[in-house]
Amino acid sequence: xxxxxxxxxxxxxxxxxxxxxxxxxxxxxxxxxxxxxxxxxxxxxxxxxxxxxxxxxxxxxxxxxxxxxxxxxxxxxxxxxxxxxxxxxxxxxxxxxxxxxxxxxxxxxxxxxxxxxxxxxxxxxxxxxxxxxxxxxxxxxxxxxxxxxxxxxxxxxxxxxxxxxxxxxxxxxxxxxxxxxxxxxxxxxxxxxxxxxxxxxxxxxxxxxxxxxxxxxxxxxxxxxxxxxxxxxxxxxxxxxxxxxxxxxxxxxxxxxxxxxxxxxxxxxxxxxxxxxxxxxxxxxxxxxxxxxxxxxxxxxxxxxxxxxxxxxxxxxxxxxxxxxxxxxxxxxxxxxxxxxxxxxxxxxxxxxxxxxxxxxxxxxxxxxxxxxxxxxxxxxx
Length: 382
Ligand SMILES: *Cc1c(COP(=O)(O)O)cnc(C)c1O
Description:
alpha/beta; 7-stranded mixed beta sheet; 3-stranded antiparallel beta sheet; 39% helix; binds pyridoxal-5'-phosphate
């Protein structure tokens, strides 16, 4: 049997060897292992320098000032801090949040928890392409709207929001604009100034960095007040306490810098791989695209295979690692809430698979996936 082909980059990416090498220099006694908050010795200063260098790398990648970057444990925590921290911090101004039903669970479940806490949420339903329009957002805004949260790139579909247009509408209505960019960094250009983004969530492990590290960009502006969720030593300008994990942070900084520098070339190559997969499936009937290619990144492709069950297809594709919808939902047999949210019929949603490609995907991987798909589909449909 041939080696396993990894086509699940949207669930997580492998750490780039260059990133792993940088991390390994920040762990052991002969490396830079000290507490970056230690002010009384050279080793602490070195660790602080490493952390601040990484902070600059992340800030540079999104056009921010390093002082606007808050380290978190991942994009989940960054989303929690953005939504809960800002709504609690801006209580005096209003208590209304606008988001969509196809956001990542880190936003959906946080917004639901805020509803239970007495805040009000308007849940927008996107179009079939997975996107909320600026007009929809304009209609949802109220005088007491404090925050709008919409993702840059949807993790199940790959569709991209028109961030600049949405930010403009949010700001015209007096609301701050939060963007979950976990799937976007290195895939599309991100500049918080040009796009008008006030808060932006990032994850290390979606960008060839380690798991367990992320960041929240928080615009320095008197209206953007974020209350801490984790209390302790007052690290990160009081917004997120806890000893900074130097090796994770160095890894994330390096990963984000690399993926920003190489993203455009990666995406051009990946477009070719995606098109190779689509061309290789053209002779099969009953394949529906849940991803609208015209408005989506090339590295995520969601397809429905009419007449088969997604779970059975996944089982039959033993040599291919991919997922039905999002990984967080694979334990349940309910169709993906994202596919349901854009109006995919239940039977097709249950027959859908998400292919996601990345830096290390090859033509041979695509060809192996095509051979397996043909074999599996012919068997299951017989
Ligand atoms: C993966 C992902 C998250 C969660 O990130 P973690 O770093 O794993 O917590 C949040 N939002 C989106 C869009 C994601 O793809």
